[in-house]
């Protein structure tokens, strides 16, 4: 039976080792909770680091730790202190974390750390490969393991791999600064499904894949190697019931059951009718905007002095990555700011900021969530931010106000919060005032809508949705695999080829027989291609036709002295072996001077594009242009052209990075059908790569063998991946013994 493998940097276990005694408890984080049901269902394995470096273990403790890990259906990846330093603190937290959160000034690009990152991702892959079997479903988590999907896919292509990024994916302008950008994108593309918290991160990723790897994207799908990869957004939720129920129980606590923290909070709240508390909780991380928050609170107290002595900011900063220098600096800055502001405003009975720098147990978190009138969650950049969601979930009376930064992924779903730009102190101060003064009815209206949503889309649901999407990618893969020309199908075709009495073979040129060049004139045939075409052409009872959108002058230049049959300009001209060119269609050119100026305006506005004028068509090429600009402009051009060509017997065709306007009904399908009538063919074959070839695939009879080059939607029956595979296939045609030789 196939199983599920979950992989994250850390295992969902807290393992403590004290004097050779082992203490194992489950982690309480969002990810561990969300994946719990998946991990407990059926056969499942969680792979990650235990938190103990190899140097921390000895002969006695290591087997015990491993046994505990195994007991919890987990497997560990052995990491040394050096790995932890360079892979985790180094590359993950000094390169990827700041870069992906737009902190370029904090981002270090050190080769030694990159080497370690690759090595450790490989270590993870080794453990996965020891455990994975064909058919297994594998879910890889987060920025520490960006290369892992590819490492697994290369060795175990028949597993289905999902990847989820918990932090933002930056925009192209930021990501392009990264020295190992291609490797990282390719690493992620080893997955069959790539998930992000928001559509913006998804969009940034698609844009980077297009611009940096020059991959084709179709809505949210990417064709890469012989696979279709789906990119989607799955906003992570929380364990709503856990927070809601804890808050409900908390409200029943008697005075003696209250924690010390709760008693302190109560002291402030009960001191006066006007006392209010503002909550701030995060890991102490520069992305969370802690200094900005403190400063804007200071600005608020100055701007609205009537709130002095009444409002308190309760700030919990959980220690994090404290051996990375920027975190140490942040700690100092935060301490100083709190000290300065408290010094400036404090009175005998009032301190504006209560600051905790520690990790509090869950019950104390609930104390804080339930006691504060306003939560001020103002990261400068945050993938999602679960604290914002947890605050809302604990508001059992549906009171309270959430002030949330637009820069948190959570803002995309929590429209009922008061959304602010954390860099705009004026706006933050005003919004804080609005929050503190918000009528209860309005608080209720806002909180209740958000609670409904959080209750529906929990972390468990998030995990289920991701798995459902991952499973559905299998269907896409299966349909595509069934169409790929594998050895068996190829042999089948060769058998038909060999036993047929009369063969007809249509070959598209660009993108099929030769690869694309930036300038179409550079794509001339090479020696190997001439030899291949000569051999094919010499096959008995076989008509080979090169059928292309090219003009006849270019083909005359390249093949003038060859006895090939050629059709150019999508079916306007035919050259039958040694004969001269004849027009297959009666087409007009009078429209060309009228439309050419329009194309010229597009060339002026889109550097890198150019016009190709053929005998009966005009083509606008945009291969060299930035893909996003190209998409934008080509949509624009098609719209303009389609409005102009009505009633003029012209058509607009979209090829591979080219838009072509040509006369009426001319297309490769029509031309191919004409050629078919010329004899009694019992083997018809057509191969091509772009939209113009689709006419051929559609118009040829059902019995024809049609092959698309590349992984795109097509009416062809089969596909091959690239021009190399095309040539290999055609070479096999020439090597196949012809069984039946009929009279010509
Ligand atoms: P984080 O940056 O850690 O997560 P966040 O989403 O707010 O940020 O999650 C913090 C979690 O830690 C919350 O579940 C919170 O309850 C818990 N927590 C906070 N203080 C605690 C304390 N003192 N003791 C115990 N637990 C505490 C990263 C990304 C986020 C993304 C998450 C999930 O940076 O953007 O939302 O992953 O994908």
TrEMBL record:
One BP term from GO: trehalose biosynthetic process
Keywords, comma-separated and alphabetical: Glycosyltransferase, Transferase
Record flagged with keyword Transferase: yes
Gene3D superfamilies: Glycogen Phosphorylase B, HAD superfamily/HAD-like, Trehalose-6-phosphate phosphatase related protein, domain 2
One GO CC term, this protein: cytosol
Keyword Repeat carried by entry: no
Catalytic activity: D-glucose 6-phosphate + UDP-alpha-D-glucose = alpha,alpha-trehalose 6-phosphate + UDP + H(+)
Associated pathway: Glycan biosynthesis; trehalose biosynthesis
Listed EC numbers: 2.4.1.15
GO terms of molecular function: alpha,alpha-trehalose-phosphate synthase (UDP-forming) activity; trehalose-phosphatase activity
PANTHER family tied to this protein: BCDNA.GH08860 (PTHR10788:SF106), TREHALOSE-6-PHOSPHATE SYNTHASE (PTHR10788)
Family, similarity comment: Belongs to the glycosyltransferase 20 family. In the C-terminal section; belongs to the trehalose phosphatase family.
Quaternary structure and partners: Homotetramer.
Protein name: Alpha,alpha-trehalose-phosphate synthase
């Amino acid at each position: 039976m196939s199983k599920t493998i979950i992989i994250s940097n850390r295992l969902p276990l807290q393992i403590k080792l004290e004097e050779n005694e082992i203490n194992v408890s489950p982690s309480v984080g969002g990810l561990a909770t969300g994946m719990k049901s998946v991990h407990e269902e059926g056969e499942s394995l969680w792979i990650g680091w235990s938190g103990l470096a190899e140097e921390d273990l000895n002969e006695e403790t290591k087997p015990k730790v491993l046994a505990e890990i195994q007991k919890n259906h987990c497997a560990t990846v052995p990491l040394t202190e050096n790995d932890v330093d360079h892979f985790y603190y180094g590359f993950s937290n000094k390169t990827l974390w700041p870069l992906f959160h737009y902190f370029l000034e904090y981002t270090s690009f050190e080769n030694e750390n990159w080497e370690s990152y690759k090595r450790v991702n490989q270590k993870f892959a080794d453990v996965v490969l020891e455990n994975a079997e064909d058919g297994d479903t594998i879910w890889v988590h987060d920025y520490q393991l960006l290369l892992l999907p590819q490492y697994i896919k290369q060795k175990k292509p028949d597993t289905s791999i999902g990847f989820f990024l918990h932090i933002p994916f930056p925009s192209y302008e930021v990501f392009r600064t990264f020295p190992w950008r291609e490797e990282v994108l390719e690493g992620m593309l080893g997955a069959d499904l790539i998930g992000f918290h928001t559509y913006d991160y998804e969009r940034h990723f698609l844009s980077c894949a297009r611009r940096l790897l020059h991959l084709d994207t179709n809505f949210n799908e990417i064709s890469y190697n012989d696979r279709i990869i789906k990119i989607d957004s799955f906003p992570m939720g929380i364990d709503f019931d856990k927070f809601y129920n804890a808050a409900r129980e908390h409200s029943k606590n008697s005075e003696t059951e209250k924690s010390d923290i709760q008693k302190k909070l109560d002291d402030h709240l009960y001191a006066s009718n006007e006392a209010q508390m503002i909550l701030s909780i995060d890991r102490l991380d520069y992305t969370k905007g802690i200094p900005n928050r403190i400063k804007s609170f200071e600005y608020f107290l100055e701007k609205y002095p009537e709130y002095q002595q009444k409002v308190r900011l309760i700030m919990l900063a959980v220690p994090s990555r404290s051996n990375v220098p920027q975190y140490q600096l942040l700690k100092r800055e935060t301490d100083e700011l709190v000290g300065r502001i408290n010094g400036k405003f404090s009175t005998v009975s009032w301190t504006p900021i209560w600051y905790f720098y520690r990790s509090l147990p869950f019950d104390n978190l609930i104390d804080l969530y339930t006691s504060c009138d306003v939560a001020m969650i103002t990261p400068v950049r945050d993938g999602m931010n679960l604290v914002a969601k947890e605050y809302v979930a604990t508001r059992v009376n549906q009171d309270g106000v959430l002030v949330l930064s637009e820069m948190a992924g959570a803002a995309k779903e929590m429209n009922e919060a008061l959304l602010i730009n954390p860099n705009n102190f004026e706006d933050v101060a005003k919004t804080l005032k609005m929050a503190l003064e918000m009528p209860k009815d309005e608080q209720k209206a806002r909180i209740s809508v958000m609670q409904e949503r959080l209750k529906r889309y929990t972390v468990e649901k998030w995990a289920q949705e991701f798995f459902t999407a991952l499973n559905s990618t299998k269907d896409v893969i299966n349909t595509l695999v069934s169409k790929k020309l594998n050895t068996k199908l190829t042999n089948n075709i060769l058998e038909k080829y060999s036993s047929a009495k009369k063969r007809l073979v249509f070959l598209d040129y660009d993108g099929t027989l030769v690869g694309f060049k930036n300038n179409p004139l550079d794509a001339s045939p090479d020696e190997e291609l001439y030899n291949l075409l000569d051999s094919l052409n010499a096959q008995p009872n076989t008509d080979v036709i090169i059928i292309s959108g090219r003009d006849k002058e270019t083909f005359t230049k390249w093949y003038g002295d060859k006895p090939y049959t050629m059709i150019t300009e999508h079916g306007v001209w035919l050259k039958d072996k040694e004969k001269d060119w004849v027009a297959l269609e009666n087409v007009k050119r009078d429209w060309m001077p009228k439309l050419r100026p329009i194309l010229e305006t597009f060339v002026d506005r889109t550097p890198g594009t150019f016009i190709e004028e053929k005998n009966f068509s005009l083509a606008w090429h945009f291969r060299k242009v930035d893909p996003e600009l190209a998409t934008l402009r080509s949509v624009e051009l098609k719209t303009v052209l389609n409005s102009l060509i009505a009633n003029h017997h012209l058509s607009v065709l979209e090829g591979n990075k080219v838009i072509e306007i040509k006369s009426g009904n001319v297309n490769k399908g029509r031309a191919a059908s004409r050629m078919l009538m010329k004899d009694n063919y019992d083997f018809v074959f057509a191969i091509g790569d772009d939209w113009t070839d689709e006419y051929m695939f559609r118009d040829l009879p059902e019995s024809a063998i049609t092959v698309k080059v590349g992984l795109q939607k097509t009416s062809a029956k089969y596909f091959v991946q690239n021009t190399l595979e095309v040539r290999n296939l055609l070479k096999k045609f020439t090597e196949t013994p012809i069984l039946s030789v009929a009279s010509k």
